[in-house]
## 1
Amino acid sequence: MAPDLRLRESDEIQGDILAGFKKDNVSVLFLKFEDAGRAREWLRQLVPQIATTREVATFNEAFSEARKSSGGDDPKTLKATWLGVSFTYEGLRALSTTDPFVTPPPVGSGLEAFKEGSAKRAGALGDTGDNSPENWLFGNGKNQPIHAVLKLSADSEKDLQAAIEAQRIAAAEQRVLIVYQQNAQTLLGSRRGKEHFGFKDGISEPGIRDFDRPDPARPEEMDGHPGTRLIPPGEFVCGEDNDPFSFPKDQYPVWSRNGSFQVIRRLAQDVPGWWSQVSIKLRELKQAKAVPDSATTEWLAARMVGRWRSGAPVCKHQDRDVPNTPSAASDNDFDFRDDLEGLVTPLWSHLRKTSPRAALQESPDKEPIAAKDLDGRRIMRRGTPYGAPFDPASEGPGGPDDPRGLLFICYQADIQRQFEFIQADWMDQPNFPPNRQTDTTPPGHAGPRPVPGKDPVTQEAPDVDFESRAQDGTIRHTPVSFQQFVQTTGSVYAFMPSISVLKALCDGRLTPQGGGQTTGQGGQTGQTQQQGGGRQPEPQPVKAYPCDEFLPVPDQQRRAGQSQYWAFHGDRCRLISVADGSAHTDRKVEDDTWLTTWSCLQGVGRVDCILPMPDLQNPGGKSWYWVFHSTSGRQQYRAVSITCGGGRYTTALERADRDLTAWGSLSGVGQVDCWLPVPDQQRVGGKSWYWVFHTTSGRQQYRLCSIADGSAHTDVRERTDREISQWGSLNGLSRVDCFLPVPDCQRVGGQSEYWAFCGQSYRRISIADGSGHPDRLVSGDRSCDAWASLG
């Protein structure tokens, strides 16, 4: 049976996302709208020129076949000029006259990253000091705002210049200003296909299911590219099938369907400084007897990258490059499982930092994570070098101080989960892989230090651990420091819409005619984008996970063997029940309703977590709660009440929103994710204790807090932050979204059990009473699909 390659036929998806323009000459125009109406007219004239996936994929296939027929030479008669357009959050809002998000996007989500933009998130990505936005040439949020990005790609410089000139005229006619222009070009001659440091680039791009042909013998890999996994298309195109642990495809905004989120970064490279540093560090390593006497600068540079200049992987060619072996130059058929210590390809090499493959361990004593479980972290790169080349190994046309670098462009469905995670949690994280420590303590360190270090190719790496095998067979650790030779000089987050959405934007709409309601991340649903607005429609059926919070219905706990809960997800809520007994049968009692149907939640786009006031639960049928929620990227809290009576529930806003700073126990916390009561420490001596799970600087931790009874509800931080890896029952989780107590397993025999939810999966854990509160895993991760009430 022929494989289904339906995405190759798409006339909706812009051509650079899946097919890739793959041209030698590129220019990116960063644009500002002076007048929204005239900008729509500019877009109306532009839309027919935008390249689709069908056009680009067809051309690329014909081009590839022609090259094969000509013995590897580019065909002279096959030429094309491609255009792609994307918009920042401000650009979408200007063209559509409405906010793309009816309610604020969830904190920590890719949609939030898109809305905030790269300048606001620079610090978390290591863009500080010389890399900080104040030094950027574009996208810093302080100079001219950027509303749109136009990418032009052509086979020849002449064709590119003609396209640029045409677009300059079209933009000027409609008062669309060019804020910045960045040209880029494939390096020529022996440098073709390489970046400025001299290494072949773009080798490890993922294959795409339903677009690339699968290998008949290994259908999980791309045909003709051994080791290149086929990734679900929804990791790059919103609304398509994606990884089970990624955000559900049916909960992206309607306007995002068949589109992709785009990251653009101008990365300046100091090539002379790089090679000088490699030479200096090689001498240091030789003096320390950490590398062979025969090691050269090429040998060390290859280990820093993970590949030789030709692209051949170091793990298969340890001693020297093999530039005349074409198969080695594009080899992806390896996974590092035979080099978990990084003795051949260092753990801090660029290759392993950006794609650990099947050799990523949570700790050295754990089995490596399967490569398929990292599918949700992949990105689609479309970068091109800019500037004249310079290489100390040969004379080049550019001087050592000439501007040069990489125009980095990538596509993904979730900027935070994909690009930002790779950048902040892998590349910029010294303790990656996590939980590793050296056996020895280098001079100047107070104790064992984390290994292996930051990515020395792209960032300053002042504390890299070079691991080697000593003569007695033990692993020796040699500290090495690298300066930074790649500088961020501009960055933009944008969204590349489908062709239908581009046409809608021409008319000032964000969704195509007949597009219906706009559904946002986390089930956030708003009104159809129509002139004059209208009544909010009823929620359409969606899955109720990822779960944000479960709130016990005050007078419906363990009644006739059933317990009821309100399950909050996104901007909606449903009523569910869970039965006592070993099966704990669950069912949906009522369908979803909008949060806005709760009078106490007006203005709340999403509930992050809820904490019952410990001494105000159901006195006289009224229960009080603190509701934590996020608005415009900042978490606040409010006090609300729920009154029960006659099977009806009345809610009220008791105290308006306040900042987290009002809680002394939450000092330094960016966002509270969930509260877990210490089971045997509730209202003991007028005080209740809680473990507070919170996200600060992109990483979830927990602390121990207490809250006193009484009108002031005095709160105290009882213990400082710790990593959630301290919980054996939570091993393998990077975060917990919420906990749900198992209703008939609370303080039974000194044990309390909970379901811990994370994304689309959950697990069951137990916590013991007494000193230390030992925890254990009762049952491992399962899909939330196992909950009938959440489907």
## 2
Amino acid sequence: MDAGKKVLLDLFAGSLRFTVPVYQRRYSWGEAQCRQLWTDIVTAGRHPDRTHFTGSVVWMQDGGIRPDGRSLCLLIDGQQRLASVSLLLIALAEHARRHPDGLCFSADMIVDRGYLVDKYSDGDARYKLTLSGDDRAVLRNLTDRLVDPGRPVSGGADSNLERNLDLFRGWVGAIGDANVVWNGLQRLEVVSVTLDQGRDEPQLVFESMNSTGLDLETSDLVRNYMLMGCPVDEQAALYGDYWQPMERRLRGLSFDAFLHDWMVATLARPVPRGRAMYSEFKRHAADSLLPRMDRVRGLLSSMLEYSESYAAVRGAEGVGDAMVGHRLGSLRDLDATVADPLVLRMLAMWRHGRVDRDGLLRMLGDLESYLFRRMVCQVSSNGLNKLVPSLIGRLDGDASDNDIADDADGADPAESFAAMLLTETVRSTRMPADDEFRQALLGEDLYRPASRCKHLLAGLENRNHPKDPRDFRDYTIEHIMPQNAMAHAEWRGMLEDPDRFPLLVNGLGNLTLTAYNSELSDGSFTEKRNRMVGGYGNEYLSISREPREADRWDETAIRRRGERLATLALDVWPMPEAGGQALLEQRGHGQTGEHGNSAVDFAALCGRGILKSGDVLESGYAGVDATATVTGDGRIRLANGETFTSPSGAFRRARELATGEDMQVNGWVAWRLPDGRPLDSLRRNDGTASVRHAFWKGLYAYAATRSDFIEAYGDPSRRKPKETTWASFGIGSSYCHLDGIVSVRDGYVAVDMYFTDTARYARLYGMRDRVAGMLKDLGTVDWNDPDTDRKNRLLKIRHNADFNADMTDAYQWMVDTLLAMRRIRDLLD
């Protein structure tokens, strides 16, 4: 590597010819960056004793010096700056042609000195700077027109180069003395960094440069990382076959967002955003001993395939199936982008024949129900960042099990997915049941956010159009009883209690869709019903049946319509359905919320000494003869020396080596211990699960002897004990829930009251002295601050427990506390 200070214009005047490799991002400077360059040049031009440093230019010679003395060079960093200076030189030459007097430079001088083009050469040697992609032709046309102004114009107003050239033309024409600009260019300095081919690593140098201008996107870094290290003759092919089609398909979408979702969908684990995502990508890309070109093609091929699905998920392209497209549109309306990687994985399973069309539609429908119910019930989405990758991994595992099966009894992915949602019972990731969903529909202000409200009403209406869903983009939300009804005597007369107006007016029973919102406005109910255009009497929507037939629109009418639509919503967004076997297989998996089992990964098993260095794993997968060993740092080493952190990644590679097939496999099931047990058995028999199971079994048996508990909660003797860290106890309330908690590792049991209604929680918080008195013999109460920035609130009390001793004391404490908590809840009634 050789670096030194150099006048920028000297790079233009010499024998070097710069070519921008295909892996570099396109020319992307906008007005802000061009204006900063212009300001720096003008400032330097007005102060003859001053120079201005403007960053670095990094390049590497591509081959030797040509017979004509020209040196072709790959431009690693500095494209934006050199291209912008080229545009400024064109603008100066054009200005000099129009206004030659009084200038210390001319158009002929700029052309003849070869700042932009050698008019006596052809090919790449003709041009000082050769850009990539569509920019190449545009810049060449601009410079050729400088030599021959009679050449036809090409490029177009859509070109960023053309737009910035027009900026420089305007600034040069307005400055008064263009000599200032020319003099400033002579004083613009850079650090010119020359890399030695075969010795310096361009990618590492590129990443370490702190250039001025626009920050690189993560996708820019990824593209450079994959293509920069490939042979030059391969770069153009890889760019044209893979990266360019992705760029065109994702035009208008965030490539970085796609890259993130692709990584989550394929790695089945949470992935950070920003520069940390690039580090994660490099670790993933390097976790293989495949030859570089094979590795790059594999990654690019996967990205290209997923880009098609991503464009469909984000609505930029169709998916080739009307009903699947409708389902994707419904999910898109929810704006729950955290679930997009899961949808991408579902579409990949469909495209590869691992789930049929009906199964895909069922999974997409269940996912919409899960997300929408949580939104309506105001369940925080914080837990979804961990749940989504977990669901992807479990789907892959079940699909792999199905692939392993020798008969038709293998797991159905759609059935498994339904079971996953039904058994995800922890607080932050649970799916609200029918009673909670219905209560929220009838008891909440549903008008805001408007996007959720419109999704609700459109979904209810389209229940009657299953084969031809209607498009309601041109419709708006209509309040049948208007929002300013209290200003009109006729509307006030329809209210039994004016204090209930705020909830009534924004409640489900009073909301509908219309294309004539401004026409209906705030008229009386009779006027709105009888209006010839847009009136309820002429409305065809099934959800507007009641106002079409009613004579009055009072509290009773609103309540009855709300009840009907809430019942209909339970059918539109139903709870998933799954058979007993699927539920049994999924129970206990993936509990990622506050009370869930901590995920036990491979490194954790090694750290606890359950697996030791040198332990051997064997394939239990038909047709794959493979072994692996456990390393001292908690990884899996295949026979060929490749190491992996996850069993699934290791077995996927082992299968590829043995069969040539690259397919996701659940390594926890496929790898076997020497005694024939699946590796997953070590994870499932961690020890704490069996203690939790014994605790709940003992608690239910003890509670069944307490008549006061049976009266309050029913007979628990038939309740099936689980291995989870928590159990829910119903108290007939939609706004709060009681949970019993057992933490084996931390040595305590607890009971909490979990509020979804923050107003009621605030009321109870105001009675905290009274509550403390009711619980004083049971322990210290822990309250959430009622003003905390959260949607939910928690009242919790805990009790130390020795799980190696007799648990009768813990059973008695939990039963007494559950009964006390129920009495505390009754204070609110």
## 3
Amino acid sequence: MHRFRVASLLTVSSFALVALPAAAQQASIPAEEAQNAPTAGAATPEDEGNEIIVTGTRAEGRTRLDSASPVDVLSAASLQRQGTTELGAALAAVAPSIDFPRPAANDGTDAIRPATLRGLSPDQTLVLVNGVRGHTSALLNTNGTVGRGSAAVDLNTIPVTALDRIEVLRDGASAQYGSDAIAGVVNLRLREAREGGGASVTYGFYNTQVDTARGSRDVTGEPTVTASAWQGIGFGSDGFLTLSGEYTKREPTNRADFDPRVTPTRITGRFGDPEVDQYSVFANAGTSLGDSWRLYGWAGYQERESESAAFPRLPGVTSGYSNAASIYLNGFLPLINSKSRDLNSALGVKGEVAGWNVDLNVSYGRNKIDFRTLNSANFSYGTDTPTDFYDGALVYDQWVAGVDVTRSFDVFQSLNVAFGIEGRREGYKIEAGERASYGYPETGAVPGAAPGAQGFGGFSPLNEIERSRRNGSVYVDVEAQVTDKLLVGVAGRAEDYSDFGSTATGKLSARYDLADWLALRGTASTGFRAPSLQQQYFTQIAQVIQNGAPVQTGTYPSTDPVAAALGGLPLDAEKSTNLSAGFVVRVGGFDLTVDAYRIHIRDQIGLSENLSAGTPGTPGYNPQVAALLPTGVQAARFFLNGLASTTKGIDAVAHYRLRTEGAGSFDFTVAGNLNDVDVTRVPTSTSTLNPAPTLFARSRILILEEGTPREKVTGTIDWSLDRLGALARVTYYGDVTQPGTTEAADVHSGKHAITDLEFRYQATKGAQFGIGVNNLFDVYPDRTIAANNSTGVIGFPYYSPFGFNGRYLYARAGLNW
């Protein structure tokens, strides 16, 4: 592994050394700009190095290569030149520091997948929409997936067609933007167009050879179709209204292994991407109000219905199955149906007051997820069981109001002063499902049978909760161009939360230009992440009958009497110390950025294991836990602070633009991320348990340390000549560990390279056509060995950073006007 890291850095460095002379020579070659505008009104790939950025700095006119912090600028065109139409997957394909795995058989996480930056938790990356804080999903990831215990922003709620570009700040920025910005910031910048429009349809399907541990099969099909359109409308002297819409219909994929429990062996499970039926609409608008003020705002709504599968229930294998045998003679496969409704909106005004630029805005976001379990049974109901169940809902909403004030002064070369205040109100709610989804019938329960819907039990009245909190913050951000060569920035922020208290963070950044072609840069900052309402209040309590008495087990808030008895305390904020240092090289059409970083996080929040009392006289009985748990409670888990980790790594991005008169335009990019996460502290006691039973199992630590690739390197060539173009991309992924209960049960994804190709015909106005293939060579992660998969459901590790679906062919047709 160490050898590969060195080799990766040498690859990027060699690219730089080879390209530098060519770039210097290219600067003197007169070249005619080739036409390269796939989506009118949106940024193109050639803008990515020269566009003005607004993330990581509040000074006007700064570009990606002029900043003191590393910022990636990803154009709408680069996001659209691939087979996927999911924003999260598209972003991971072009940004090496971002990972977007495809979990399966993990309940709601299958449908609402979290992304990670620099291998850290999904909730440690702040997501902005046009610079305004976005809202998280109502879903809390409680299963054994990457991002376990987090409630993250659902990137896929924003259609790609609504975007102009994305800015990814790969640096701690809590002092500038507040909670969550420990790993960095993703700023989604919406398209602004007064005229023009476009529409496209993308159709794709899998053509793959599936080789699992117990057999092989060919799969052709499982199609996905996405139709999208946008229109720019102008009004007044400078007003604009940009409307965008997108519809996606995706059939489920299945990469399950053959089930050894049935004769003859066959595939009984469904393991892969869920079925999706989704539509999104977005509007972004702005207009002048007089000579010095401007009104702006946006609103977006998405409705997504997903259907994933649980593990199959087989006759003679599943306990309690006989209670539903007359309904499902040959067994059944429970389906988990989720319907997510997401609202994203903001309204603001900006203008000038006494020489100061003032921006006042208010935003509201809301996410509601309704759950149903289909094709299932409640064994405690016997033959009277329903087959479809309403399981309840999760709701999260967020109000944010803020004022940002900036002004430039003629001090030093220039001095930019910014300050502001922000207020936020968050709410969280759990709604119960119908009785049959979580419990026993009122009368006539089958003795000893498990209650609730098989596959996904509903939320009971014991789980219902409605909570809210408020916070206020103030910040100051000063950036000075001290000399032609020296840039210095200082930022500080103070926040006060109604639940856990106050915190303060700071950041110092600097950049020194040694020459026109070489600059050094570095930052030092402190950061924090407030515990989410989902982590503080999520409850999922199941009630079962043991020896004729009801017994409770499940997830409790840390301040609930059950968790408090075991040592649960009010959650505090996670805190971080971030250091980074790097350099920027640019000569002619070539640029290279290399940035090393170290992120130390303390008081990190984690979801404990189930602390179980057990049964007296049986193995596993814990008298210490039994003495603390209230009567009728068998086991409990809860969130607690106390983990600590250190993340070290290097990001490198090399980009070379070659413009020729006869052969067209070439954009070469090599980008890599080397990342190492080390958990340095694991709590072994609580306020009432010292020592405690295992609070965090080995598998939980491995999720943090090895759940994302330690190496990811992407090489891309994008060519265009008039209306023709082609793209080739190869992405190398390092090994990822999907932890088992023991080291022998661990599953590894292996080291693999994925190749993508696309050919296109397009014009600024007129027809567009494209054909392509993702995963040209039909590469899979290392298959799950048979010994680790007694059910035959899990064919491949769902921690795989590039998924496990195989070769995907697609075609795109559209029209710009």
